[in-house]
Amino acid sequence: MKRVLVVEDNENNMKLLCLVLEKFGYEPIKAFTGEEGVEKAIQESADLILMDIQLPDISGLEAVKRIRMMDDMQEIPIIAITSYAMSGDREMILDMGCNGYFEKPINPLTLMEDIEKIVSSTNL
């Protein structure tokens, strides 16, 4: 079973993401802050990370930066989930080390298809 680290501070979004992941046979690993996300990225062997950008402690981008600095974390796909929708935000998020980008609100009906497109396009 593939494991997905979900870093999301909103309880409703966390429940929705985990529900969809579990429905498709993935095991979600929950983290509610950026610091906790970095710690769990180190401790848990996830196959994918879904990272909220606006978090209560460090930003999701700072968490991605810290995760990408670890030698064994270069290849893991990271998908940003954010309400950022300004011009240039997508490029900035991808430049910071994310492999993909979803805007909130998330569509639960297409979430897994969208994840699989990004993961398959990263050639990991």
| Mean pLDDT score | 92
Q: What form results from the Cα inertia axes? A: globular
Q: How are helices and strands ordered from N to C?
A: EHEHEHEHEH
CATH superfamily: Response regulator
What's the CATH topology label? Rossmann fold
Task: Please characterize this protein's 3D structure.
The chain is of the alpha/beta class and 124 residues long. It has a single domain (3-119), classed as Response regulator (Rossmann fold), CATH 3.40.50. It is built from five helices and five strands. It has a five-stranded parallel beta sheet, sandwiched between helices. Strand 1 (3-7), helix 1 and strand 2 form a beta-alpha-beta unit.
What's the gist of this structure?
This protein has helices at 11-23, 34-43, 60-68, 89-95, 111-121; strands at residues 3-7, 27-31, 48-52, 78-82, 100-103. It has 124 residues and is of the alpha/beta class.
